[in-house]
Every structure is written in C-alpha cells, then in structure tokens.
C-alpha cells in the first residue's frame, strides 16, 4: 500500500454509531434530502441488520441461500462475502478478514431520488425496494449506489437488490441469509422495538459499530461489529484474478458474465 | 484497537463475490436506450418480491400461530454435501416435487446452536425457526453454502438416470441404455458380454469352496476376487456391507479413508490404543481455553463443518478461547475481526518436527499433567476420579535383539502372574521398587534400568515416558525449527502457552497429516493431548456421544445377523492387518534360506484395508488378481495422488479386471472406466442413518428417507434403481442368504423379507426409535408439520402396528438425538474413553517394518518424509530439481463431487494456487501469471495467486477442481452426446501431481509407510512461468 493512502486511512474517523443509527424520531414520510416520501410497509417498524464479523466464518451460506430464495440469475448477487488477506503492520502476521455485503437500506438512500419513474422507493419500514411493474431498467439506481448492491436482473430486465427478504419478514420468518448464517453473525430486526435482539445489541455495542462509507452520508442501516475501520471505505486490495483458465492455460473468462 | 489487530490489507484473496458486486456496474448502461415504457424482460411473479420463493409457512408476529403453506411441505433428512452429513430441513413444492430450498434441522446438533429436545412438537420447532420473538436467530439451524447448493444434483443435466452398459473399449465414454433386469442378469451370469471374450459373472466368482491360490492358502477363497468399494458411509453402508461381507462374503471392501485422513486416524488410534477402529477425538471448543489446530481448520473445512465453525465463531466473539492454526496456508479459520487467534505457517510434511519440538520442551520443562501421567493403572485412576490412565510409567523391554523387545515388562516376566491372565499387567517402578501397575497409586515417569528375571536373564527396560523423551531429544530444537520452518521461539511459545492452559489446552489435526511421515506426525500431535491429560475432560479431547445403532442386534429386529450369514476370510488385497511373517511367501523364502526382507510390496500389519493399495495391487496381481469390482460413489482416481497415471491403462484392460460395475448418480473420473453403470438415488431420495463423526457430545442418529421421488429409472417391479435395489436384486438372483424372503429376524425369531430398501431401513428405524426408552408415538400435527404424508403408508405397510407411532415420531424429527444438556460430571465428560492412553504403543512397537524386518517404533519420532524403500524423498527428488512442496487444503465451498453445482461455481469458479511472494520473485512469477507446475508424476497449468498467506517454499492447492468428468467431458449414450461443460474442467487437482513411488516393485503411488495413506501433503514440484 502506498504511504499516502495509508495516511489517509489513518485519518479516517471511526464512525460513531450515533451518527449512523436511525433517528428514531425521523418522520418517515417527510422526505429528507430530496428523498420522495416513503410508502407502503409497516410505519411502526424500522428494519436494520447487525453483522458481527467476529462470528462470520466466510462460508458463503448466506450468498447461496439468498441466491436460491430470491431466484437471482447466476453470477448476480443480492448479498455476498468478500474475503481479504490482511497483514500486521509490525509483525507481518497474516489473517483473514471476511466482509459480508448487501444493500444497506440507507436512511438516506442515494438510489431512490435518481429513479426517473419512482420504481425504486423506500418503504415506511425502511426497506428499499424496486417496483418491477414500474422499473424500466435504466440502471440509474445501480450507478447511484456506492455499495454496488444493485444489478440489472438479466431475466426481468429490472433493477434487482436485497429486500431484507421482505416477503419472509411479512410472513413472520427470517431472511434467507440470516436463517442460514452458520456462524450466527447476521442479526436482523425492528430497531424501533427496544426489546428486539438488534436493538439490544445496538445499545450494547453502540460505540463499536461501524457502517460502510460513512462519508457518503447515506446513513447505512447495516451495522458491523468487529469491523476494521480501514475497511469502511472500498478497500485498496489487489483482487484475485477471476479469469478462469482451462487445463491448457487458455483464459475462459467468467462463466456467468452477462 | 488491540495491537494484534493492527494489520493492513495486503490483498483480496479467493472467495466469492469479490468481483460480482462490481459487475453490477458493467452492463446496465447499455440498457439505457430501451425507453421508459416498462421492462422488456420476463414479468416476475410479484412487483416487489419478484421471483422470490413463496414462504413455506407464516407465523403471526403477535400470537406466534403458525400456518402451513398448503402448496409446500417441509421434511427432515440428511445432506450428502460432505461427510459431516448434517440433518437438514427440505422445502418441497408439492405440485412439482422440486426441492425449493434447504436449511438446518433444529433437532439436529450438527446443524443447530442448541438443538431442540425430542419432545418438542414439530410445529413448535418450525415456529422456533421464525422471526417470532427473534427465536430463529437466537437459536439457528443452518445449512452451509454447499448444503444449500447441493439440491441442484437432483435435476442436474449431468446426472445418469438410466442403467448403462459400455460400448467399445473400457473408458471410451460411450454407453448404451439397458434395462435393470438385463444389467442384473449380465452382471450375475457373465458371458461374452462385450465381444472381448468370456467374463466371469458374480455367480462364478461367488465361490467359497476353491482357494484363490493353493500355494498361498491364506489368501482365502475365490469369492475374495470381488472387490467392493464405496466413497464413505452416507447412511447406507450397512446394506452394502451386509451384501459384501456377510452375504457374498468377500474380504475386499474399501472406502475413501486411505486417501482422506487415514494417517491422522491411525496416529490417533495409536494414542487411544485402538488401531482396530482408530478412534479419534475433537476438542470441546466451548470449554477449551487454548486449541492448537495443526493440519485442520475449523470453519475452513473439517468435520463437523458447521458445528465447529459455529462454536469457534462463538468462542471468538465471547473471547473465551485462544487458538492457533498451524498450516502451510492461511485459511478462513483465522479471523482478523477478533483477537486471540493466529496463523502459524509450516512447511508441508514436516509436522513431526513441530510435534517433537513441542514435546521436547514440555518434557524438559515439566509442562505436562504430572499427577495424571503418574497414575499407573485403573485403580489409581478410579481413586483420582479419572476415567482412565496412561501407560506413561509402564516399563518397556528395550534390550537390543531380545525377542520380547518392544513388549511391556509384565508380571508374567517376573513369574508374578500367568501370561495373558488378567493379573498379567505391565510393571512400573514406584519408590524404586518394581511393582505391578495396578498395585500402586503412583509410579515413576522416567525409568531407565536393568531388571533381572527369575531365570537370571537381565533386561534393559525403559518407561514409556523415557522412550518418548529420548525420541524427542534426538534432535535439538534448532533442528526441528529449521525442518518445519517455524522459528524456535515460536515453537517454545506454542509449547509454553499449551502448557499454561493445563488440561484445557487441546490439539487437533486431520488431513494435514497425509504426508510421508504422517502417522508419526499425527501420533506426536495427539501425544500433546496425552501429555496435557485432557482426554475425557471438560475443555479437552472428547470422543463424543456415539449413536443409536439401528443396524445391529436391535430391540425389534436383528439387522446384524441372519440365517446363513458368512464371515469373510483371507488376506486383504492391501496386505493389511496380516503380518507378512505369517504368509506362505515369507515362510517359503525363509525355508529356501533367502532373506525374506524386503517384502515384494509393503505388508502393513497395523493398517486397516486400504483402497490405496487394493486397486493397484489387484491390477498387478499381488498378492492375487481380482475378477470384479463394484464401486458405489467411489472416485479414487480423482482422490488418490498419482493413481490415474499409475492404473488407468491397466484398468482399461479386461484381462486384468473382468468386470467393473459402478453405482452412482454421476459419471466420475473412476467410474468412466466401468462396464456397467447403475443409476443411484442422490441425496433427499435415499434411505439411511448417519451419526456425528465426532465433535458432538451427545448421542445422536440422523435419519433420512426419500423426501422427493427418485428421478432415475425404475425396475420392472416399479422400484427406483439404486445401490439398495442393485444389491438386493443381485443377492436374490444368486440366492445369497440375508436377502429376499425370510431375511430379517425379529426379536421373537420370526423372519421378515428384504425385497425393498425400506424393508431394511424402516426396520432399522424401529430399532433406533425403540431402543432404551422408546420414543412416543407421533401425533397428527407432527405428521403434518414434518411432511410425512408420503412416508406413512410405507411405514404402515412394512412395520408392526406398535412400531408405527415411534417410527413416525423419529422421522418427524429427522432422527433421534439425546437432549442437549450438560455433558459433564464435574470436570469430566460423561462420554469417556476408557482404554489406556498410550505414550508408548506396544502394538506399534512390536510390529515389523517389512522393508527391513526391523521393529517399528512405538513412540512418535521425527523424520523427514520417506519413500517405500526407506530412502528420504528429498534424496530421490532433490530440492535443487523440485524446489517447492505442494500441499492441498479442503475448500469451504467445493468438494470432490460438487463442481457441477453452478451456484458454487459462480462464487468460486476455480482454484488459483497460493504462492508466497518470495517464491514468486525467485521464479519470476507475478500475481495472476499462468504457470506450469511439474512433479515427478505429472504436470498441470495453473494460475498463481501471489501473497503472504502461504509458507515460503510451499504451494497451496484447494481441493475440488480440475475435473475431467462429472460433466467436464461428454459421454455418448445410445449414440447421443450428453451435455458437458468446459467450465467444469477449470482449475487443477493436486492428485494429478502425485507420482508412482520409484522404489517399489509392485506398482504403487507414494504412500505413508505405516498406514498406507496416500501422500498429498508435501509433493515435490517445480514451477515455471508460461506464456499462453
């Protein structure tokens, strides 16, 4: 890593939880920062997720169960887990860092105002969804999301993203990723309910929680526990070469590129 | 932030989705022109939820009332995604019989945090998985990535669903469809089946009256010329073994163990005094304070995968455990997100150096459980409230050349007891006196003295502990450090930390021990547990709770015995468990005045039958040739390093092997050479019973039943063709006992038929359900909520009325599981290992090395890996010529048969190899370069992943890629080319770098000397950059 970047990282403020947590008093329908009014969903709830990275084992059960549950096209993901190799600055000791990612269901979602047809909207329970009846597949929202959490579904030709498995939450069930989290890292729940597990964990760990790219002022509602603050911005990491080789060394590309 | 976490990112490694989120950017912009009148794509089912699945049930958030979705059913069964065999819950669409999604069975300890008590009504279990009161995330029951993805096997385009007979030469990948009845007839009766001459059928081979070889009568009857191999016990082995060992009664059965983890298992068996079954242990993660993982990595892989992963994750968050992972490669078990865990890199195949270095430090610094080790016998152990004792104080005869060298000095040697009697116990020294080990409460650990026998003969004796210390002191710490690549101070630090946690420090190993000195490496690593005195202790090494055995002499049916049952006899093809010195060959040589050593090929008296030797030896006809092979889901050619190059041509030769029948749902690298394919059921379509391999403290048996209809061909009788129906049909046609009418005795001695798979498995279920305190009857709600509707008529048709209710109760919960409870009595585990723990293993120490006729050593010791004739691997394959050592590691996603699953391929499409930056620089290789990897036995092309996450000098290869079959190469059936996909060929298989051991005369791959385990850790290689 170059020294300039390292020093920049060093200056990054650890995001305090207070700045990112839902302003519970916010008037959901008022519309903030050019956000159109929220509609649909249960106005008494605000869903969020807490991911305890210490308990993430990087097994990708979430990735696959989400993919099946939500019938995503092969090679497109509503959630996934990135795996990084990190090195100790002084001792050179090396360890693995797992970073599960999904839509942050931001309090100030940049994907919503850019939609020319109001297909993408935020529900009153905080879940950001896409109305596929309206969506024209223009991908403005895909480009507006700083977290790469959206994609154009090749089959429906509409924007696709994590809905916190709203269809399961509405049935009183858990999202596929939470249900299948082997290490027990993912916690979902209603943050307006002080008795919910997520509310209790937020109050217990408040100061230790971080969100991704806080400087974008999107106010993500996916909180990470055990986060290394240098990962809250897009990590400067040498990527794994994803070109697949055939047995003779010929590059085959990626099977599921659309 | 804790100082230990002050790391910075070095590179993104492996794992999926790394590029895929970014891929979201790539093509949407192209779509902008399509206008604003709506989408041009398929209309999804719901405007917001798109094509997400309709929930299987709903739970009212206020009342918790559960309402089933009438279009789906949820049933509990077993996952075949790896050998953990987790209990899972499967959602099935009733109209289409498609599996929709899979997750964990909350009653099953392998899938759940705290598994539910059996008495829990199924409806409550399902509610407990929901969001109601956050229950489902406070106590989860999960399926891993592969467990989720595996359902695609059922309707895979690569699946074989019809009986096949080869067309043209063996291995030509061309087939014709035949009926099940024709297949059974040809396999049983033989004849000129392929226009290549007469082939003996199973009827001709089933000859128990004629010896294979009258010159060598110990080889046994000709029936031994059938070899049956299977991958592993996925719950159906009992039926396969009933046929193989007790109905057809061939000696030659083998499974994947010898190319999986046998060196570890035997090393463990050596300390546990159990070389018959090679018992092993797992750490009690929840109560341990320090765990040293060497060559195994919880949450990267290992068994039980999810349970260990979950427990280690919880321990990390709770901060209760400090653990170190020693491995040539960094893996997912070492987490930057938490403190108190660390990776220590080691050179492949050198683990005995680490083990002996640590043992040296512990012995020289009294870093062992002195009081426990001093207990010389069971009376002392009982008095000390210990489940067992060790033989640390026992005296071993160590007089050079003495016929009893290696034996314990026993009471009978001193005329104090009759030889072999109960009183003939090993002797110890207490207060300077020679006494029987059961007569004192403590004895001296370190003894080295002479003993005068009654007849005046003087013997040198050393205590087990002295022999261990002598072995550990053979090299100095600096030498150990140099050989394994772990700095001396790190070894000392590990030993010191291990010692500091007393009896709550544990070590655990597994596949990393598959190296050239792997048995003794594993023996040494497991010795650390003995020195810590942690067996049977809270936070120590646990043997686990065992199982409810349904296939033995059960309370309802005797599934272990039947009228006309035979026992197999004779020498295994692998020449294991039989001393060479008892062979006719040995005696002929001695009689002819020849040196009987070295034997023509290794005879391993300590090892179980090993597939690694079975196949090559049979094809070379030593000790004897075979006539037929039946393989069930077995794929040794993919799994054993160097096997393909060694035997592929011989396997094609009908003169060396007359008949090869493969039972499988898929055409793999081994059964492509078969003459016949029997299309098998795949997971969720099968019957069976599995248990925890280890790592669970309670008693448990997981049940599976066909929760979806098998997709393959049916017999004329309407039964799905499968492993079960194949063996039943063959046995019935040959008239073998134990199958057909009057095959299964019940408790009253009445005989019941075995015509269908369920005739066997449902009776086993009755045994499981009704042993001990019988299970109660299932109620209607259980039957509905567990989706048992398709099963109930079969239970009612097959079993006695009083068995229906308990068996339904069992299947409604996916098995029988001891309730979650405290599995401890004070500091002791309730499931204890009661045999003497071995510092010195007498059986090993008195066995003979057939290379030279010398005794094997009964304590662990350090050695560099050796070849079959005893020469050091590095003398034959020098570092100058082969500068790197390849090692393999298990993938957390892919397994050896999962490459056809696109949902795994999309995350990790292939396996670039891990190479250290220093090595990359040394060989002019950059990150992402295409390289050629050559070994003495093969050459592959790979992509280099350059970083710091691997030991310099080592090259890491993730297992599961580099396939040539399973859909990677087209097969032709009835003239039509079957689907194939080039993506399945991506990546490399370390076993293609295995090699023929050049020091053997009977052909063999490089095998670990004691166990016969395939060596895949530390294969000598060289790498070169290539321009493509």
UniProtKB/TrEMBL annotation, chain A:
<dbReference type="InterPro" id="IPR054822">
    <property type="entry name" value="DsrO-like"/>
</dbReference>
<dbReference type="InterPro" id="IPR006311">
    <property type="entry name" value="TAT_signal"/>
</dbReference>
<dbReference type="InterPro" id="IPR017896">
    <property type="entry name" value="4Fe4S_Fe-S-bd"/>
</dbReference>
<dbReference type="InterPro" id="IPR017900">
    <property type="entry name" value="4Fe4S_Fe_S_CS"/>
</dbReference>
<keyword id="KW-0408">Iron</keyword>
<dbReference type="Pfam" id="PF13247">
    <property type="entry name" value="Fer4_11"/>
</dbReference>
<keyword id="KW-0479">Metal-binding</keyword>
<feature type="domain" description="4Fe-4S ferredoxin-type">
    <location>
        <begin position="47"/>
        <end position="77"/>
    </location>
</feature>
<keyword id="KW-0004">4Fe-4S</keyword>
<feature type="domain" description="4Fe-4S ferredoxin-type">
    <location>
        <begin position="126"/>
        <end position="155"/>
    </location>
</feature>
<protein>
    <submittedName>
        <fullName>4Fe-4S dicluster domain-containing protein</fullName>
    </submittedName>
</protein>
<keyword id="KW-0732">Signal</keyword>
<feature type="signal peptide">
    <location>
        <begin position="1"/>
        <end position="30"/>
    </location>
</feature>
<dbReference type="GO" id="GO:0046872">
    <property type="term" value="F:metal ion binding"/>
</dbReference>
<keyword id="KW-0411">Iron-sulfur</keyword>
<dbReference type="GO" id="GO:0051539">
    <property type="term" value="F:4 iron, 4 sulfur cluster binding"/>
</dbReference>
<dbReference type="InterPro" id="IPR050954">
    <property type="entry name" value="ET_IronSulfur_Cluster-Binding"/>
</dbReference>
From TrEMBL, chain B:
<keyword id="KW-0732">Signal</keyword>
<dbReference type="InterPro" id="IPR041929">
    <property type="entry name" value="Tetrathionate-R_A_N"/>
</dbReference>
<dbReference type="InterPro" id="IPR006311">
    <property type="entry name" value="TAT_signal"/>
</dbReference>
<keyword id="KW-0411">Iron-sulfur</keyword>
<dbReference type="InterPro" id="IPR050612">
    <property type="entry name" value="Prok_Mopterin_Oxidored"/>
</dbReference>
<dbReference type="GO" id="GO:0046872">
    <property type="term" value="F:metal ion binding"/>
</dbReference>
<feature type="domain" description="4Fe-4S Mo/W bis-MGD-type">
    <location>
        <begin position="72"/>
        <end position="158"/>
    </location>
</feature>
<dbReference type="GO" id="GO:0051539">
    <property type="term" value="F:4 iron, 4 sulfur cluster binding"/>
</dbReference>
<keyword id="KW-0479">Metal-binding</keyword>
<dbReference type="GO" id="GO:0043546">
    <property type="term" value="F:molybdopterin cofactor binding"/>
</dbReference>
<protein>
    <submittedName>
        <fullName>Tetrathionate reductase subunit TtrA</fullName>
    </submittedName>
</protein>
<dbReference type="GO" id="GO:0016491">
    <property type="term" value="F:oxidoreductase activity"/>
</dbReference>
<keyword id="KW-0004">4Fe-4S</keyword>
<keyword id="KW-0560">Oxidoreductase</keyword>
<dbReference type="Pfam" id="PF01568">
    <property type="entry name" value="Molydop_binding"/>
</dbReference>
<keyword id="KW-0408">Iron</keyword>
<dbReference type="InterPro" id="IPR006656">
    <property type="entry name" value="Mopterin_OxRdtase"/>
</dbReference>
<dbReference type="InterPro" id="IPR037946">
    <property type="entry name" value="MopB_CT_Tetrathionate"/>
</dbReference>
<keyword id="KW-0500">Molybdenum</keyword>
<dbReference type="InterPro" id="IPR027467">
    <property type="entry name" value="MopterinOxRdtase_cofactor_BS"/>
</dbReference>
<dbReference type="InterPro" id="IPR006657">
    <property type="entry name" value="MoPterin_dinucl-bd_dom"/>
</dbReference>
<dbReference type="Pfam" id="PF00384">
    <property type="entry name" value="Molybdopterin"/>
</dbReference>
């Amino acid at each position: 890593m170059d020294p300039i970047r390292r020093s920049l990282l060093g200056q990054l403020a650890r995001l305090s939880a207070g700045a990112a947590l839902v302003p519970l008093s916010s008037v959901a329908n008022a519309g903030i920062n050019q956000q159109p009014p929220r509609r649909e969903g249960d106005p008494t709830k605000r869903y969020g997720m807490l991911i305890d990275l210490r308990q993430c084992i990087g097994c990708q059960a979430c990735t696959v169960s989400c993919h099946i549950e939500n019938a995503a096209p092969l090679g497109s993901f509503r959630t996934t887990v990135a795996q990084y190799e990190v090195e100790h600055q002084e001792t050179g000791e090396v360890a693995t860092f797992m970073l599960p990612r999904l839509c942050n269901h931001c309090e100030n979602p940049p994907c919503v105002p850019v939609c020319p047809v109001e297909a993408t909207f935020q529900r009153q329970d905080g879940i950001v969804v896409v109305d596929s009846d309206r969506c024209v597949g223009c991908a403005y929202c895909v480009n507006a999301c700083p977290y790469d959490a959206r994609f154009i579904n090749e089959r429906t030709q509409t924007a696709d993203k994590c809905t916190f498995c709203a269809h399961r939450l509405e049935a009183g069930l858990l999202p596929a990723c939470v249900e299948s989290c082997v290490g027990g890292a993912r916690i979902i729940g209603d943050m307006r309910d002080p008795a919910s597990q997520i509310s209790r964990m937020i109050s217990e760990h408040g100061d230790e929680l971080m969100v991704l790219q806080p400087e974008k002022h999107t106010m993500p509602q996916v909180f990470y526990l055990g986060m290394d603050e240098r990962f809250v911005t897009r990590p400067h990491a040498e990527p794994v070469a994803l070109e697949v080789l055939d047995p003779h060394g010929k590059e085959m590309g990626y099977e599921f590129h659309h | 932030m804790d100082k230990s976490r002050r790391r910075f990112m070095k590179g993104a490694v492996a794992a999926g989705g790394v590029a895929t989120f970014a891929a979201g950017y790539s093509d949407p912009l192209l779509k902008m022109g399509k206008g604003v009148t709506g989408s041009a794509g398929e209309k999804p089912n719901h405007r917001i939820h798109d094509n997400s699945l309709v929930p299987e049930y709903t739970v009212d958030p206020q009342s918790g009332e559960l309402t089933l979705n009438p279009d789906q059913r949820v049933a509990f069964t077993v996952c075949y995604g790896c050998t953990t065999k987790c209990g899972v819950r499967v959602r099935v669409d009733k109209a289409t019989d498609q599996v929709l999604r899979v997750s964990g069975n909350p009653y099953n300890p392998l899938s759940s945090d705290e598994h539910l008590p059996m008495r829990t009504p199924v409806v409550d279990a399902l509610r407990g998985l929901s969001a109601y009161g956050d229950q489902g995330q406070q106590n989860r029951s999960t399926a891993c990535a592969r467990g989720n993805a595996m359902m695609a096997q059922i309707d895979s385009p690569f699946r074989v669903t019809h009986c096949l007979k080869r067309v043209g030469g063996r291995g030509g990948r061309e087939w014709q469809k035949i009926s099940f009845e024709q297949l059974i007839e040809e396999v049983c009766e033989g004849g000129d089946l392929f226009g290549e001459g007469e082939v003996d059928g199973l009827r001709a081979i089933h000859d128990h009256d004629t010896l294979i070889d009258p010159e060598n009568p110990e080889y046994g009857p000709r029936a031994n010329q059938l070899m049956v191999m299977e991958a592993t016990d996925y719950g159906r082995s009992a039926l396969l073994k009933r046929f193989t060992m007790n109905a057809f009664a061939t000696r030659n059965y083998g499974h994947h163990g010898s190319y999986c983890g046998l060196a570890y298992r035997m090393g463990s068996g050596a300390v546990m005094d159990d070389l018959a079954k090679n018992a092993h242990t797992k750490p009690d993660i929840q109560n341990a304070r320090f765990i040293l993982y060497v060559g195994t990595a919880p949450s990267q892989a290992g068994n039980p995968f999810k349970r260990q992963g979950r427990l280690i994750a919880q321990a990390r968050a709770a901060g209760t455990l400090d653990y170190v992972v020693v491995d040539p490669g960094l893996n997912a078990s070492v987490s930057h997100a938490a403190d108190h865990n660390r990776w220590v890199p080691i050179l492949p195949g050198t683990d005995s150096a680490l083990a002996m270095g640590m043992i040296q430090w512990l012995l020289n610094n009294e870093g062992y459980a002195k009081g426990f080790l001093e207990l010389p016998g069971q009376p002392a152990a009982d008095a000390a409230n210990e489940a067992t004792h060790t033989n640390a104080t026992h005296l071993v005869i160590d007089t050079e050349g003495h016929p009893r060298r290696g034996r314990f000095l026993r009471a009978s040697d001193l005329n104090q007891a009759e030889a072999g009697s109960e009183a003939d116990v090993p002797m110890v020294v207490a207060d300077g006196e020679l006494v029987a080990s059961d007569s004192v409460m403590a004895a001296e650990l370190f003894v080295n003295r002479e003993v005068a026998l009654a007849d005046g003969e003087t013997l040198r004796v050393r205590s087990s502990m002295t022999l261990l210390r002598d072995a550990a002191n053979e090299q100095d710490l600096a030498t150990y450090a140099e050989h394994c690549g772990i700095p001396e101070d790190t070894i000392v630090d590990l030993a010191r930390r291990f010692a500091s946690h007393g009896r709550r420090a544990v070590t655990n190993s597994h596949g990393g021990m598959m190296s050239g000195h792997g048995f003794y490496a594993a023996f040494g690593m497991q010795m650390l547990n003995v020195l810590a005195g942690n067996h049977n202790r809270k936070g120590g090494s646990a043997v686990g709770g065992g199982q409810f055995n349904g296939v033995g002499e059960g309370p309802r049916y005797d599934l272990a015995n039947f009228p006309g049952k035979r026992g197999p006899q004779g020498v295994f093809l692998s020449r294991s468990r039989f001393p060479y010195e008892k062979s006719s060959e040995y005696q002929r040589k001695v009689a002819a005045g020849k040196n009987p050593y070295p034997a023509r090929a290794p005879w391993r008296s300590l090892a179980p039958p090993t597939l690694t030797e079975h196949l090559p030896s049979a094809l070379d006809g030593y000790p004897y040739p075979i006539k037929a092979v039946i393989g069930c889901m077995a794929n040794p050619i993919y799994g054993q390093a160097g096997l393909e190059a060694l035997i592929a041509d011989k396997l094609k030769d009908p003169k060396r092997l007359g008949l090869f029948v493969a039972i499988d749902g898929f055409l793999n690298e081994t059964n492509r050479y078969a003459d016949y394919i029997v299309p098998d059921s795949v997971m969720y379509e099968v019957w069976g019973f599995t248990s925890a391999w280890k790592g669970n403290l309670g008693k448990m048996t997981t049940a599976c039943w066909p929760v979806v209809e098998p997709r393959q061909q049916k017999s004329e009788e309407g039964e799905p063709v499968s492993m079960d129906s194949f063996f039943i049909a063959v046995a019935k046609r040959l008239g073998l006992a134990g199958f057909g009418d009057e095959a299964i005795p019940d408790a009253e001695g009445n005989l019941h038929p075995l015509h269908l798979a369920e005739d066997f498995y449902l009776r086993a279920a009755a045994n499981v359900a009704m042993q001990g305190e019988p299970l109660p009857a299932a109620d209607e709600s259980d039957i509905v909520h567990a989706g048992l509707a398709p099963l109930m008529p079969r239970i009612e048709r097959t079993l006695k009325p009083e068995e229906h209710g308990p068996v339904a109760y069992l299947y409604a919960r996916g098995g029988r599981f001891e309730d979650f409870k405290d599995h401890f009595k004070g500091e002791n585990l309730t499931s204890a290992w009661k045999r003497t723990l071995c510092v010195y293993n007498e059986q090993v120490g008195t066995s003979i090395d057939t290379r030279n006729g010398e005794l094997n050593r009964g304590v662990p010791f350090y050695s560099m890996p050796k070849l079959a004739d005893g020469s050091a691997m590095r003398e034959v394959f020098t570092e100058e010529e082969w500068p790197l050592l390849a090692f393999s590691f298990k993938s957390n996603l892919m397994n050896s048969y999962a490459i056809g699953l696109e949902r795994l391929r999309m995350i990790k499409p292939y396996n670039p190899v891990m190479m250290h930056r220093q090595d990359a620089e040394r060989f002019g290789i950059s990150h992402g370069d295409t390289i050629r990897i050559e070994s003495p036995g093969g050459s592959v092309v790979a992509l280099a992943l350059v970083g710091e996450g691997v030991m310099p000098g080592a090259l890491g290869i993730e297992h599961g890629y580099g396939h040539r079959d399973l859909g990677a190469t087209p097969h032709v059936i009835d003239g039509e080319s079957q689907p194939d996909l080039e993506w399945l060929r991506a990546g490399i298989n370390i076993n293609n770098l295995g090699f023929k051991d050049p020091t053997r005369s009977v052909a063999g791959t490089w095998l670990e000397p004691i166990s016969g385990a395939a060596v895949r850790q530390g294969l000598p290689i060289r790498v070169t950059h290539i321009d493509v």
